[in-house]
Q: What sequence folds into this?
């Protein structure tokens, strides 16, 4: 008789425990052109799943990770699958801007909160009925452009040329940088494009050289960013070359070698975590993250893109804990709404890219001077050049 | 436009053109003998320098295992053909040993990488194309696309998404007519011309003619004692050799990554078609044309460069089509 | 429609209520892919034109509708019309250039404008929003209801897909469809029956593009986001793969391919992480291997492989009235050749040849090798233009006219090597002969308005088959016929065109003795039907016993003319055959 009661109690307990599960869906670009961004994101998520960065108390968290191959259609299909089949409470991902933009309708329709890992401001701005459900952690191109332009102005640069990817990444940078440069009185003398798979950019570089700019900004990501810089250097360019935060991974340094010496780039603080002044808020979490990532994936392997996933988790973790007080995970609609509200209520969460304080009109929550630093490549290493604090 | 810029663009266009020409030559070779449009060639062109990079970093690249595996599968498939399975198994072992040698002596990484990648071509023919001797060109094309997916996916798994930098065989620059031209670029152009001459001459020999006959009329070729199967394997072997060499020579200039192959293959294909898919010299001319068009349009309108190159292709195609005397069977 | 088809439709309509929402979404994507693949069925499977540019057409229509909606608030339904119109225009212009290209140049041209359009879509940021794309597109509305959920969109998408498939099915089984299929194998033969290859090819091109355009519109208003990614060369290749793997020469095949590959993508995403763990990304490798595996197993595609193993119903015998017979000509002689001359460069192949063919007779045209018989034949048939001379047929001058014109007048030819279409049935091959006697325009074929004429054409062709003794094999694929039967089919096809004068080009070549006798009887029988025959052949025994009169050619000139007996006694003829060096 006692056994039966115990059995029932265990069953009920099991059921209760089984229901207290928060499901998080992830769709990111681990293959395709944005793989160098998506792979560190995925690696970080695998670490998160193992609990390396802490798990919310009182509930089990389950991750569903899908690859979208840098294709917006696949991103949307994955999103719908995660929502409809896996019944997730939260979606994280959308490595590239087009992917995230494409996902907005799907998450808004289903009323599921979404933390994007892509750059474009349009993903979260303006916060209308659909973007009510959408948040993001990476700095916007606007923010990073501002950093670059401020640095250029401080160095007395007057004329600048742009050479960027013909992808959404390069396009976003082209637009924002042109805007920021104009506002600061810099003259943009050339704006050229190239494809990440190109084997030569001689034409573009010659065009730029003919305009003799004081500085050149290369709007590219990953190792394909080396080719234009190398061509510029080989053809004798002596001005200052800037890159974007898209190159903030170790492969760039390895492939670039001496050609990328002295490059300046804006980056999230995590890139030079150890060199930050101790008062810099992101220093501690960045060092923790780097240590954990390198422990699993090798020394020097971390990249700033993985950091965006880490930040998303910090936000999500806190939000989950607060939301659990207001709703139960097995009530799908209610918990999704509560989670969304709590993400929006994020206040002072210190991530590796800055401090996040969100609100109804700001679904990013980063402050310029805490989210960007200028980094220079010296002797094949990332060296902190300046902060904006 | 000032003459220095013109000169730079010209030399850049010709060097890129040489790379496209080499890819085009390998595609024409395979098509002329087997009617296969070998899209995965782009992947193999990249595999060679990527394998070399692996050796240079002191790793054993997975290409070694893949090559050996394909050879062993081939040996099993041909197990009833006399000595063939033993030769193939021996070749597989040889590839493995080469791999180990490459790790031990990285200064030989280039030639070893070439030899490691070489079996991929004929083995792919044996495993995937030989079983379908009566296929239409469209069928072979879709098969080739399937293989392209496989090799590209394997490329990502083996080498990761990043580019690799490779040391030049001929570092530094030469002065050519007052213009600095990278030595490696000169090598590439020389290789293209050499390959073109070589292939042209090869196909004037009896053996070469026999290979061509095998594609045009299978039954007739077999009656004449030409093995259609052997023809295909030889063609794939030669083509892979040309492609791997192209990749090894070009990579120091362009870097190498797993996903650069498709676009290279496409441009090579364009050049090959400009040669009607039958002529080696015209394929090289086609390659040069594509390279030059590209170089100049990237100067004038870089955002639309590919659109310009491909649009300019259309009138050229129309002209070539009108002047083509006989058409191959419309397929 | 057959009962199986009706059942299938009902099942399809019920499907969205039976499957969970994500699968409804997948089914929508399947329908979109099927629309594009169906266009490829027409373009590549039937007309033999391989296109790598269908995704670009999707993009043209998709962007048109998206831009109109975002910038001018235009309703998506109007966007569909605008999108199709713009796509049709693009297809017309690009098609005019592309369809005249021969061989491999055609696919490369499609690659060229596919890439060019893709780049323009991405780089013309001001117009299209560039690579980042345009979000917040409006949904399709039906009667106040926004079709945002996959279930309602399922009906929209499948409705369009099935409508398009229905149109194509109708087209393929009409006179235009047969001609399109004939074009693929043998443009020369098709032209001999009245087809104008460039026109037909252009039509198929535009139709295929419209299918892709509709798919593009469906796509952008389903996801409500547009950027160039789905309209790339890679996407075009995917659609081609779907069509080929499923079976590009059949409608069920392309639909099967679309469903299979859409599902495969998802299935691999579920399965592979279970097998290889989460860290790998092996879907594309598995995808490629499965693709290769299917093609090795079923080179013509999965559907033909499946179909061959299904029981097949026998179609009914075509019955009923045939087509209206041609008015008999009273002209006698029926054919008058005066001073016909043709040279090739310096070689004078035919020199001032004059002869006539009387109504109701069988005339043989003979001569040693190199005499100019084939050239004369081709001049009469309209394949070659004479340099000088006149050819009067049934009272009209026809020298230099094209085959498709003369065939309408009743001058029909056969070929020395049978120019048949092996993938079409014997009956369909014979029906090709009726093309110049039928009139339904393309649009009528699409919308089912040509049924009556089709039935009569089928009956006519069936009777022609009966006349030559092939009626038993009417529904077999023509590729399975033996040589003798192929000749009979050629003859049947010619008969179906209701000829006044039949030009037979070496009809006995390659036949055995018994077959030759049967052939001779057949030709005799033609005379009883009021058909005049001109035949060219090398078999002296056959010719001399069959024909009423003979014209002997030598070195391009007429050497002798008369009855077989007269000609055999003519010393000049004997010398030409035995004395001359052939």
A:
């Amino acid at each position: 008789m006692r056994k039966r009661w115990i059995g029932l109690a265990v069953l009920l307990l099991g059921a209760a425990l089984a229901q207290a599960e928060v499901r998080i869906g992830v769709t990111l670009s681990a293959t395709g052109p944005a793989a160098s961004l998506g792979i560190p994101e995925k690696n970080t998520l695998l670490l998160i799943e193992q609990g390396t960065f802490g798990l919310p108390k009182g509930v089990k968290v389950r991750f569903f990770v899908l690859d979208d191959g840098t294709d917006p259609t696949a991103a949307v299909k994955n999103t719908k699958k995660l929502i409809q089949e896996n019944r997730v409470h939260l979606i994280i991902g959308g490595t590239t801007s087009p992917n995230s933009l494409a996902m907005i309708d799907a998450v808004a329709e289903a009323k599921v909160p979404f933390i994007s890992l892509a750059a474009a401001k349009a993903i979260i701005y303006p916060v209308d009925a659909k973007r009510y459900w959408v948040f993001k952690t990476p700095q916007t191109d606007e923010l990073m452009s501002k950093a670059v332009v401020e640095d250029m102005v401080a160095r007395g640069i007057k004329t600048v040329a742009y050479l960027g990817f013909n992808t959404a990444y390069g396009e976003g940078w082209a637009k924002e940088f042109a805007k920021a440069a104009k506002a600061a009185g810099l003259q943009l003398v050339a704006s050229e494009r190239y494809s990440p798979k190109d084997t030569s950019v001689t034409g573009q570089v010659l065009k730029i050289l003919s305009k003799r700019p004081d500085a050149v900004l290369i709007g590219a990501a990953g190792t394909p960013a080396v080719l234009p810089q190398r061509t510029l250097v080989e053809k004798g360019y002596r001005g200052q070359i800037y890159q974007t935060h898209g190159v903030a991974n170790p492969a760039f340094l390895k492939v670039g070698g001496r050609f990328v010496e002295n490059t300046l780039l804006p980056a999230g603080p995590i890139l030079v975590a150890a060199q930050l002044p101790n008062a810099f808020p992101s220093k501690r979490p960045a060092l923790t993250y780097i240590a954990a990532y390198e422990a699993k994936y090798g020394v020097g392997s971390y990249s700033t893109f993985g950091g965006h996933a880490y930040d998303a988790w910090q936000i999500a973790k806190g939000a989950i804990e607060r939301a659990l007080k207001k709703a139960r995970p097995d009530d799908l609609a209610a918990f999704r709404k509560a989670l969304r509200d709590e993400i929006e209520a994020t206040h002072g969460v210190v991530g590796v890219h800055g401090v996040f304080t969100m609100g109804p009109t700001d679904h990013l929550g980063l402050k310029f001077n805490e989210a960007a630093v200028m980094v220079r490549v010296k002797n094949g290493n990332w060296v902190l050049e300046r902060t904006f604090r | 436009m000032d003459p220095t810029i013109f000169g730079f663009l010209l030399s850049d266009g010709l060097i890129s053109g040489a790379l496209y020409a080499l890819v085009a030559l390998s595609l024409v070779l395979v098509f002329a003998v087997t009617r296969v449009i070998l899209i995965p060639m782009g992947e193999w062109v990249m595999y060679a320098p990527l394998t070399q990079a692996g050796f240079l970093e002191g790793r054993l690249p997975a290409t070694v295992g893949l090559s050996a595996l394909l050879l062993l599968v081939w040996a099993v498939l041909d197990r009833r053909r006399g000595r063939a399975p033993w030769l193939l198994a021996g070749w597989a072992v040889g590839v493995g040993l080469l791999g180990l040698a490459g790790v031990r002596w990285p200064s030989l990484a280039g030639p070893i990488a070439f030899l490691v990648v070489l079996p991929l071509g004929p083995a792919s023919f044996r495993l995937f194309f030989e079983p379908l001797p009566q296929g239409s060109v469209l069928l072979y094309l879709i098969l080739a696309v399937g293989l392209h997916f496989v090799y590209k996916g394997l490329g990502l798994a083996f080498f990761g998404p990043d580019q690799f930098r490779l040391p030049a065989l001929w570092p530094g620059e030469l002065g050519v007519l007052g213009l600095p031209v990278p030595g490696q670029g000169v090598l590439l152009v020389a290789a293209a011309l050499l390959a073109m001459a070589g292939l042209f001459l090869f196909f004037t020999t009896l053996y070469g003619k026999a290979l061509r006959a095998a594609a045009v009329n299978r039954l007739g070729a077999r009656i004449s004692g030409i093995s259609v199967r052997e023809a295909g394997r030889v063609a794939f072997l030669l083509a892979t050799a040309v492609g791997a060499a192209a990749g090894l020579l070009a990579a120091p200039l362009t870097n190498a990554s797993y996903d650069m192959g498709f676009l290279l293959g496409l441009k090579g294909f364009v050049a090959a078609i400009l040669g009607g898919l039958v002529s080696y010299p015209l394929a090289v001319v086609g390659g040069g044309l594509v390279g030059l068009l590209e170089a100049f349009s990237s100067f004038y309108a870089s955002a639309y460069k590919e659109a310009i190159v491909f649009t300019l292709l259309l009138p050229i195609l129309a002209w070539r089509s009108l002047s083509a005397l006989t058409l191959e069977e419309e397929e | 429609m057959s009962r199986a088809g009706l059942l299938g439709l009902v099942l399809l309509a019920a499907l969205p209520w039976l499957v969970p929402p994500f699968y409804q979404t997948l089914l929508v994507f399947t329908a979109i892919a099927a629309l594009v693949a169906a266009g490829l069925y027409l373009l590549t499977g039937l007309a033999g034109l391989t296109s790598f540019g269908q995704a670009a057409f999707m993009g043209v229509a998709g962007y048109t509708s998206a831009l109109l909606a975002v910038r001018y608030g235009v309703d998506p339904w109007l966007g569909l019309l605008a999108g199709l119109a713009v796509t049709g225009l693009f297809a017309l212009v690009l098609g005019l250039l592309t369809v005249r290209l021969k061989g491999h140049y055609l696919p490369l041209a499609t690659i060229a404008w596919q890439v060019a359009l893709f780049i323009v879509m991405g780089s013309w940021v001001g117009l299209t929003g560039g690579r980042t794309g345009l979000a917040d597109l409006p949904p399709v509305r039906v009667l106040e209801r926004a079709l945002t959920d996959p279930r309602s969109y399922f009906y929209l998408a499948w409705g369009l897909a099935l409508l398009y498939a229905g149109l194509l099915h109708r087209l393929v089984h009409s006179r235009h469809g047969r001609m399109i299929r004939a074009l693929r194998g043998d443009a020369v033969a098709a032209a001999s029956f009245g087809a104008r290859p460039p026109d037909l090819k252009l039509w198929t091109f535009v139709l295929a593009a419209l299918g892709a355009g509709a798919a593009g519109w469906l796509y952008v208003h389903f996801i409500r986001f547009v950027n160039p990614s789905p309209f790339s060369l890679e996407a075009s290749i995917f659609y081609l793969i779907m069509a080929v793997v499923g079976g590009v020469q059949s409608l069920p095949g392309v639909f099967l391919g679309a469903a299979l590959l859409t599902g495969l993508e998802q299935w691999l995403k579920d399965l592979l992480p279970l097998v290889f763990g989460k860290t790998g990304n092996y879907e594309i490798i598995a995808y490629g291997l499965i693709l290769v595996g299917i093609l090795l197993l079923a080179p013509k595609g999965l559907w033909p492989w499946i179909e061959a193993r299904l029981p097949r119903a026998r179609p009914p015998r075509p019955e009923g009235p045939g087509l209206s017979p041609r008015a008999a000509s009273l002209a006698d002689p029926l054919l008058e050749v005066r001073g016909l001359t043709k040279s090739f460069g310096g070689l004078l192949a035919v020199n001032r040849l004059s002869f006539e063919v009387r109504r109701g007779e069988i005339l043989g045209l003979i001569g040693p090798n190199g005499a100019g018989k084939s050239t004369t034949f081709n001049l009469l048939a309209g394949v070659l233009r004479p340099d000088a001379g006149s050819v009067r047929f049934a009272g009209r001058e026809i020298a230099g006219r094209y085959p498709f014109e003369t065939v309408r007048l009743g001058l029909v030819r056969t070929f020395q090597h049978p120019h048949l279409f092996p993938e079409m049935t014997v009956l369909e091959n014979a029906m090709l002969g009726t093309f110049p006697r039928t009139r339904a325009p393309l649009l009528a074929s699409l919308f089912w308005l040509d049924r009556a004429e089709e039935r009569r054409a089928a009956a006519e062709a069936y009777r022609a088959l009966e006349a030559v003794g092939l009626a038993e094999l009417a529904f077999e694929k023509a590729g399975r016929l033996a040589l003798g039967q192929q000749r009979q089919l050629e003859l049947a096809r010619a008969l179906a065109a209701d000829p006044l004068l039949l030009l037979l080009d070496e009809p006995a070549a390659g036949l055995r003795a018994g077959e030759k006798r049967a052939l001779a009887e057949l030709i005799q029988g033609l005379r009883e039907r009021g058909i005049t025959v001109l035949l060219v052949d090398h078999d002296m025994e056959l010719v001399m016993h069959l024909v009423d009169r003979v014209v002997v050619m030598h070195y391009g000139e007429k050497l002798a003319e008369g009855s077989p007996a007269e000609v055999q006694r003519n010393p000049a003829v004997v010398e030409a055959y035995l004395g001359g060096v052939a």
In short: Confidence is low (pLDDT under 50) at residues 326-331 of chain B.
